[in-house]
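job 3f2a | input accepted
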Amino acid sequence: MGMLAYFVHGYVESNLLTPNYILILFIVSVLGLAWAIFTLFSYHRSSANAQFVAFVDLGFVGAFIAGVYYLSFVRNIDCVNITRGSSADISFGIFGGAQINTLNVSVNKTCSMLKACFAFGIMNCFFFFSTAILAWIHGGKAEAKEKKHHSRERSHSHRRSHSGSHSGSHRSRRSSHSHSHSRAYV
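job 3f2a | predicted structure (186 res):
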């Protein structure tokens, strides 16, 4: 996101419209970062809405695919130019000498940064897809665990209410009622 912000800032300072291939990936990256931070800090509630988190993550996968598609022209551009420079003679004393050819390397910073943004966009596709799968699995396990807990709680309170006196029955209903409000989502 920082490299894309560098490009957006450059276009804004020059009072030019930011090209779509930068703007789309920048907007998706900003929203993806905000979503990732939000889900990180609300992880304790994630089992209750894990399918929703998985659905939104899959939406970000599609958005990153679109952003990478718009920037895909950069994959065929050569950002580094290497030319042969001058030669130099090196003497090793009694062991002889060598002739070394130098290389001149020039790197186009803008092109290299766009290629890096392209690569990070592809990586974000994989990251959001993997978190979508993990959220879906996490939600399924949490639902099964909660159903198992509720069925055990109902059968336990049902057995206690049929045995014993009226006061014992009243006490078990109160204790089962207090347990149902102390649920914790992990």
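job 3f2a | The first strand starts at residue 80 and ends at 91.
job 3f2a | closed
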